[in-house]
Design a protein that fits this description.
mainly alpha, 9 helices, disordered N terminus, disordered C terminus, DNA-binding, homodimer, 0% strand
DNA sequence: AACGATCTTGAACACCCGTTCAGGTTAGGT
DNA sequence: ACCTAACCTGAACGGGTGTTCAAGATCGTT
């Protein structure tokens, strides 16, 4: 009777459910992501969800973790240690391109909106957001290290802004049904990156 | 039999429904914003919704227009013509404070997420977003007018970024249940504003 | 005072929801 | 061959959904 799976052990089925949940969220939105809809997407019976998760809320919390961690790991690995702002920008542009159409971006957005009515989900989304915030802070710190303006930059706040801009960018792009490329936005960041690289080492430009 | 109200004429009831819809969206999220829930919030019978709107989708499209236009008008009036970057920042900070807790911000967010499954709603949200984008472009253009770097600035892309950051900021703040103030983010923008004001008129700083 | 147009109500309709669970399937140990 | 534990199925349950509509309320005009 409703046995909990032995945790740890197995299972690709669990992951299959998570993928189906993410895909359904991205394609249909939170309201239409019913147990039946998710099951249809994944090609399994609705009942199986309740073998691996105790209820739908549980599934969505797990989905928030799944869709973000996956992506986070790749972002961290591919940006850590990059020193030139130009290279960092290119890396981000490339990562963004790869994620487009994967559906995880849209899923996160739906889950964020859904968080109003689920404290557990809200907590999970906050947690994931904090990880991104920290990653952004590290990237910014690497960029400005040794710059003349290093001590002027409010890193935490700037990181919040960057994360916000990134989320907003995805939001807007998703609104279009992913019709618009974010290429122009990355292009806009290019002069900034160039300026940062140019200033590197010039220590007395803003001390006046 | 289901007569359409003579348009134009009347009605504060219609607005009352829109307010109730926005409030319910903000407090309960899109999924729980049912006809009955909205009616309970507004203190009217569920049936009345269908006298003023042809269905719930219609109501949400109208709500997207209502919550954004209201706010947009105030933003435009209170920022147009401001020349000093510092003053603009203060105006935005003040406007943001006033809107906090009004619920319109959260409502827009819910509607944006809901747009995946409603083409008409998606179209309306896109339309409102375009208006904000245009406002941002005008503000930026005013700020950089006559600056040394005027010709370097990709105004359109920068405006997209600003709108994205603003949306993202609201998203993050809403996630907290509005526990966190965005004060620190505005603080982060202060050095930037100061720099813009400082550079005003110095025409040959970046021509190298 | 009576009327018609306008507005409001809430019970009723068919339908879909999250969740359960008795039963079926599978696979490995003996 | 048989047993057992794990896994999977989908019909069935009570309850909530969007929407309709007959009936009632309201009110300016006559």
């Amino acid at each position: 009777m409703t046995p909990v799976p032995p945790a740890e052990i197995s299972s690709s089925v669990r992951e299959n459910i998570l993928r189906a949940a993410a895909a359904t969220l991205a394609a249909q939105g939170f309201k239409k992501s019913t147990a039946r809809a998710i099951a249809r997407t994944g090609g399994f019976a609705p009942g199986v969800i309740y073998y691996y998760f105790s209820n739908l809320d549980d599934l969505f919390v797990a989905t928030a973790e799944y869709t973000s961690s996956d992506r986070f790991a790749r972002y961290r690995a591919r940006t850590e240690g990059i020193e030139a702002a130009r290279d960092l920008l290119d890396a981000l542009r490339q990562l963004y391109r790869e994620d487009q159409g994967q559906g995880h971006v849209a899923a996160v957005q739906e889950l964020t909106a859904a968080a109003v009515s689920s404290p557990r989900l809200a907590e999970q989304v906050r947690l994931q957001t904090a990880r991104w915030q920290e990653l952004a802070e590290n990237l910014i710190r690497t960029q400005i290290q040794g710059q003349a303006f290093e001590s002027f930059v409010p890193v935490g706040a700037l990181a919040s802004m960057a994360v916000g801009a990134y989320l907003g960018l995805e939001m807007l792009s998703h609104l279009d049904g992913d019709r618009s490329t974010p290429e122009e936005l990355f292009a806009a960041a290019e002069p900034v990156a160039a300026m940062i690289d140019m200033l590197r080492g010039q220590t007395d430009l803003l001390t006046d």
